[in-house]
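Journal club side-thread
Mid-discussion, someone asked how the predicted structure for our own chain would compare to the paper's figures. Pasting it here so we can look after the session.
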Amino acid sequence: EARRLNPGVRIASEEKLRVHFFGTYKSDEDEQPPPDVRYSWIMRAFMIMSGCGDVVALSLDEEGQLLARLSWNGFKPESSEEVDQRVTKYLAHELLGETEFNPNNGQHLNYIEALRAAFPEHTTVGEITITVVP
Protein backbone atom coordinates (compact mmCIF):
# COMPACT_ATOMS: atom_id res chain seq x y z
CA GLU A 1 0.00 0.00 0.00
CA ALA A 2 2.85 2.38 0.86
CA ARG A 3 4.46 1.73 -2.52
CA ARG A 4 1.18 2.39 -4.32
CA LEU A 5 0.60 5.64 -2.45
CA ASN A 6 4.22 6.82 -2.80
CA PRO A 7 5.52 5.45 -6.11
CA GLY A 8 8.56 7.75 -6.15
CA VAL A 9 9.77 6.81 -2.68
CA ARG A 10 12.12 3.88 -2.11
CA ILE A 11 10.55 1.73 0.59
CA ALA A 12 12.48 -1.05 2.27
CA SER A 13 11.27 -4.63 2.05
CA GLU A 14 9.52 -6.06 5.11
CA GLU A 15 12.53 -8.02 6.34
CA LYS A 16 14.58 -4.79 6.48
CA LEU A 17 11.99 -2.73 8.36
CA ARG A 18 12.49 -1.61 11.94
CA VAL A 19 9.34 -1.39 14.07
CA HIS A 20 9.12 0.27 17.47
CA PHE A 21 6.17 0.13 19.85
CA PHE A 22 5.45 2.11 23.01
CA GLY A 23 3.50 -0.03 25.44
CA THR A 24 1.74 1.64 28.36
CA TYR A 25 1.63 -0.59 31.39
CA LYS A 26 0.03 -0.02 34.80
CA SER A 27 -0.52 3.70 34.53
CA ASP A 28 -3.42 5.97 35.49
CA GLU A 29 -6.66 4.07 36.11
CA ASP A 30 -8.66 6.86 34.43
CA GLU A 31 -7.16 6.12 31.01
CA GLN A 32 -9.32 4.32 28.45
CA PRO A 33 -8.86 1.60 27.35
CA PRO A 34 -7.30 0.16 30.49
CA PRO A 35 -3.48 0.00 30.32
CA ASP A 36 -3.40 -3.81 30.51
CA VAL A 37 -5.49 -3.98 27.33
CA ARG A 38 -3.13 -1.61 25.50
CA TYR A 39 -0.07 -3.56 26.67
CA SER A 40 -1.68 -6.86 25.69
CA TRP A 41 -2.34 -5.48 22.19
CA ILE A 42 1.31 -4.45 21.83
CA MET A 43 2.49 -7.93 22.82
CA ARG A 44 0.09 -9.55 20.34
CA ALA A 45 1.33 -7.25 17.57
CA PHE A 46 4.89 -8.20 18.54
CA MET A 47 4.05 -11.90 18.26
CA ILE A 48 2.38 -11.44 14.87
CA MET A 49 5.24 -9.39 13.44
CA SER A 50 7.81 -11.88 14.73
CA GLY A 51 6.09 -14.71 12.88
CA CYS A 52 4.13 -16.25 15.78
CA GLY A 53 0.71 -15.07 14.62
CA ASP A 54 -0.71 -18.60 14.64
CA VAL A 55 -0.53 -18.58 18.44
CA VAL A 56 -2.39 -15.27 18.60
CA ALA A 57 -5.00 -16.49 16.12
CA LEU A 58 -5.94 -19.35 18.45
CA SER A 59 -7.78 -16.82 20.62
CA LEU A 60 -10.10 -16.00 17.68
CA ASP A 61 -13.19 -17.83 16.47
CA GLU A 62 -12.95 -19.98 13.33
CA GLU A 63 -13.76 -17.11 10.96
CA GLY A 64 -11.23 -14.87 12.71
CA GLN A 65 -8.57 -17.57 12.41
CA LEU A 66 -9.20 -17.86 8.66
CA LEU A 67 -8.98 -14.09 8.22
CA ALA A 68 -5.81 -13.94 10.33
CA ARG A 69 -4.27 -16.65 8.13
CA LEU A 70 -5.31 -14.73 5.00
CA SER A 71 -3.87 -11.43 6.21
CA TRP A 72 -0.46 -12.90 7.17
CA ASN A 73 0.07 -15.85 4.82
CA GLY A 74 -1.66 -14.29 1.84
CA PHE A 75 -4.31 -15.56 -0.55
CA LYS A 76 -3.15 -18.90 -1.99
CA PRO A 77 -5.98 -20.58 -3.92
CA GLU A 78 -3.67 -23.22 -5.41
CA SER A 79 -2.18 -24.26 -2.05
CA SER A 80 -2.57 -27.88 -0.96
CA GLU A 81 -2.58 -26.87 2.73
CA GLU A 82 -5.98 -27.58 4.28
CA VAL A 83 -6.23 -24.21 6.05
CA ASP A 84 -5.49 -22.30 2.81
CA GLN A 85 -8.20 -24.33 1.07
CA ARG A 86 -10.64 -23.39 3.86
CA VAL A 87 -9.71 -19.70 3.41
CA THR A 88 -10.31 -19.95 -0.34
CA LYS A 89 -13.70 -21.67 0.11
CA TYR A 90 -14.69 -19.13 2.77
CA LEU A 91 -13.93 -16.22 0.42
CA ALA A 92 -15.73 -17.86 -2.52
CA HIS A 93 -18.79 -18.27 -0.34
CA GLU A 94 -18.66 -14.74 1.14
CA LEU A 95 -17.92 -12.95 -2.15
CA LEU A 96 -19.78 -15.06 -4.71
CA GLY A 97 -22.15 -17.31 -2.80
CA GLU A 98 -20.32 -20.29 -4.31
CA THR A 99 -18.61 -23.25 -2.65
CA GLU A 100 -15.36 -22.53 -4.51
CA PHE A 101 -13.82 -20.35 -7.21
CA ASN A 102 -14.17 -21.62 -10.78
CA PRO A 103 -10.93 -20.91 -12.72
CA ASN A 104 -12.87 -21.10 -15.99
CA ASN A 105 -15.18 -18.24 -14.99
CA GLY A 106 -13.93 -14.74 -15.87
CA GLN A 107 -15.64 -13.08 -12.90
CA HIS A 108 -14.08 -15.63 -10.54
CA LEU A 109 -10.65 -15.06 -12.10
CA ASN A 110 -11.03 -11.32 -11.51
CA TYR A 111 -11.75 -11.99 -7.84
CA ILE A 112 -8.79 -14.36 -7.57
CA GLU A 113 -6.39 -11.79 -9.02
CA ALA A 114 -7.81 -8.98 -6.87
CA LEU A 115 -7.47 -11.13 -3.73
CA ARG A 116 -3.88 -12.06 -4.60
CA ALA A 117 -3.05 -8.36 -4.96
CA ALA A 118 -4.91 -7.37 -1.77
CA PHE A 119 -3.48 -10.19 0.38
CA PRO A 120 0.19 -10.85 -0.37
CA GLU A 121 2.21 -13.14 1.87
CA HIS A 122 4.13 -11.36 4.62
CA THR A 123 7.35 -12.09 6.41
CA THR A 124 8.78 -10.99 9.72
CA VAL A 125 10.33 -7.54 10.00
CA GLY A 126 14.06 -7.00 10.52
CA GLU A 127 13.92 -5.62 14.03
CA ILE A 128 11.24 -5.06 16.65
CA THR A 129 11.72 -3.03 19.81
CA ILE A 130 9.25 -2.23 22.56
CA THR A 131 9.50 0.50 25.16
CA VAL A 132 7.26 -0.07 28.15
CA VAL A 133 6.16 3.21 29.71
CA PRO A 134 4.56 3.44 33.14
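Post-session note: The longest strand covers residues 18-24.
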